[in-house]
Q: What sequence folds into this?
């Protein structure tokens, strides 16, 4: 095999997946058809859960540098805003950062870990034969083939991988027409400013968001306009005319950095993989782009898939581990698609929607509702049912809460202990043999005291997966040894002394 995994698509999701594969020891190559990064930023926000994941890998500071944190978020442009700073999280805020910068930093992270990134290399065909995937690739130097046990499509909503693999993309057709432009406003007071400023009129919706010094993102959405050709180029005059049509204002715009059009087409892959071909990011799900949720959803896909696929390649993955990727991430996407559809419906300028918006505004003023929606939009509400089914503790299946671990040298954030890409077992006793058979894939910190502040649901002992989700929780007493051992087997395979008798080929699951 040329590589262990071929990743198609070098955007943020593909780059993060390649990094996670390398962290797990897999040889990864990324094929990106663009010769240079586009420099455009479809998304401008990283959500609290994504910030947790970056913290777990020790790269968060790179993203924070020079960028703003934002403790609020909007839901369909309705006031009051969501209060992210009330979240019980390590990072209770969004980070306002251009997607182009996120992509740049993740590409460097992948390269630093040893991934190979080939720009100007486009996938043109693929075939699966036995235990390998053969990818046909076109580059400036000509066509060639690559072979690997697995291939992952991170190549966007019009995914070539999804099409070649024959995976269905089911959902709803577009019903709105939207334009986006990053422009200079010589007279900024002409439009509502802020993060975001919103105008909803009988003719549509306008949002104006300050994204960079001197640059405002102007986004228009019309609900009763014939849908144009999705690929038709957008001009500055078209954006200016649309703003005037919606708001009645003549707004001076100049120096467009980027102009684009999109719709609310909402689709979800029928399956997240077939055989040895898998999907992640927009290749698996598309929706109306609001709150950068597509980017964050895709990055969380990559964190879920990376360690599982690396384990499968290494041969220690337990049966069904790779299958759990689609079983866990597809329901997470269903929730995001439902929520973005709801926001589009609430933004409709029809007068009959006004009463519903007023009602939702009243609900957002209730602290419990505001907190519930804040968790949903932040990615902190996910609980994987593959883990939670028979669990005795409510934390199992959820992201690890914000807590510190003190093993005698002073408290440290638990997230910093996951930077090896291994699982993590935190125990209150000196139980060095508790996971001895898994020492190559699970780090053990004994004699530890966990502290989560005012929370009262944090147990004395935790087993965390490499993606930071709780795989087991308890007091680590003798009566619970069986539960811990079962969780270790379920998520980390057979211990050392048994691996020599295991046929690794049997552990290569499919999704």
A:
């Amino acid at each position: 095999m040329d590589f262990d995994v071929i990743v198609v698509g070098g955007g943020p999701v593909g780059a993060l997946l390649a990094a996670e594969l390398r962290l797990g020891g897999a040889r990864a190559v990324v094929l990106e058809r663009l010769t240079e990064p586009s420099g455009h930023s479809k998304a401008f926000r990283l959500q609290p859960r994504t910030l947790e994941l970056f913290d777990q890998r020790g790269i968060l500071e790179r993203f924070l540098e020079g960028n703003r944190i934002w403790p609020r978020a909007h839901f369909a442009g309705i006031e009051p805003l969501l209060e992210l700073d009330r979240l019980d999280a390590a990072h209770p805020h969004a980070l306002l950062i251009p997607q182009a910068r996120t992509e740049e930093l993740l590409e460097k992270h992948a390269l630093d870990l040893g991934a190979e990134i080939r720009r100007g290399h486009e996938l043109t065909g693929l075939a699966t034969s036995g235990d390998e995937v053969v990818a046909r690739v076109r580059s400036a130097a000509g066509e060639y083939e690559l072979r690997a046990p697995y291939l992952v499509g991170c190549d966007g909503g019009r995914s070539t991988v999804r099409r070649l693999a024959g995976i269905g993309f089911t959902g709803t057709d577009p019903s709105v027409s939207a334009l986006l432009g990053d422009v200079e406003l010589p007279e900024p007071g002409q439009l509502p400013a802020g993060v975001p400023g919103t105008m909803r009129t009988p003719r549509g919706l306008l949002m104006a968001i300050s994204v960079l010094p001197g640059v405002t993102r102007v986004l228009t959405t019309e609900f009763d306009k014939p849908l144009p050709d999705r690929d038709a180029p957008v001009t500055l005059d078209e954006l200016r005319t649309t703003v005037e049509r919606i708001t009645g204002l003549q707004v001076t715009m100049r120096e467009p950095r980027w102009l684009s059009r999109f719709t609310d087409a909402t689709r979800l892959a029928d399956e997240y993989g077939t055989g040895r071909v898998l999907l992640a990011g927009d290749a698996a799900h598309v929706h109306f782009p609001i709150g950068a949720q597509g980017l964050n959803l895709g990055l969380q896909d990559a964190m879920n898939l990376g360690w599982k696929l690396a384990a499968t390649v290494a041969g220690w993955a337990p049966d069904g581990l790779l299958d759990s990727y689609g079983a866990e991430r597809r329901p997470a996407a269903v929730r995001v698609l439902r929520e973005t559809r709801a926001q589009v419906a609430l933004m409709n300028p029809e007068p009959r929607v006004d009463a519903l918006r007023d009602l939702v505004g009243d609900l957002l003023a209730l602290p419990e509702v505001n907190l519930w929606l804040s968790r949903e939009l932040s990615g902190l509400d996910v609980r994987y049912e593959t883990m939670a089914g028979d669990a005795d503790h409510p934390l199992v299946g959820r992201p690890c809460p914000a807590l510190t671990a003190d093993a005698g040298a002073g408290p440290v954030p638990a997230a910093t202990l996951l930077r090896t890409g291994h699982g993590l077992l935190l125990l209150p006793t000196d139980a060095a043999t508790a996971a001895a058979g898994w020492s190559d894939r699970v780090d053990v910190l004994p004699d530890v005291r966990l502290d989560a502040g005012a929370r009262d649901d944090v147990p004395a002992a935790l087993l965390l997966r490499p993606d930071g989700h709780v795989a087991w929780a308890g007091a680590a007493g003798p009566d619970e040894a069986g539960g811990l051992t079962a969780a270790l087997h379920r998520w980390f395979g057979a211990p050392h002394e048994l691996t020599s008798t295991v046929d690794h080929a049997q552990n290569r699951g499919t999704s």
The longest helix spans residues 323-347.
